[in-house]
Amino acid sequence: MNTRSYNTVSAKKEEVKRDWYLVDATNQTAGRLFSRIAAVLRGKHKPDFTPHVDTGDNIVVINADKIRFTGKKLDQKEFLRYTGYPGGLKRETARNLLSRKPESVIEIGVRGMLPHTKLGNAMIKKLFVYAGGEHPHQAQKPQPFNF
Hints:
Elements: E1 20-24, H1 30-42, E2 58-62, H2 73-76, E3 78-82, E4 89-93, H3 94-100, H4 102-111, H5 118-124, E5 127-129, E6 143-144
Parallel strand pairs: 1-2, 1-6, 2-5
Antiparallel strand pairs: 3-4
Helix pairs in contact: 1-4, 3-4
């Protein structure tokens, strides 16, 4: 008879250590970048990942305006939003949104890959996206994250 006992250790939100990572989006393929950022925001790269606890790290993305879409996605991919009024569905192509607000392209793409719950809302707050190469998070000393 086997008398060994195995205990699963779950992470607790008070014990989570959060690191800061810097991601340069220059010439990165959009969907691949979004899924990798979402995995780090969730904490799936850590050995103590727990699905119901926010164990992820903070991510600073720079050069969001230099992200790359493959194929014809720049002209064919549409971002939809609804104003709340009848007939208020607004459509915008990726090319138009990238030229107008490049930060929102990454934010929308990553948000779609996170859980659609309160936990996902807490995770997206750890994402900081900037169109240029400058960011105000030098005090946190973000480390370059290589995918």
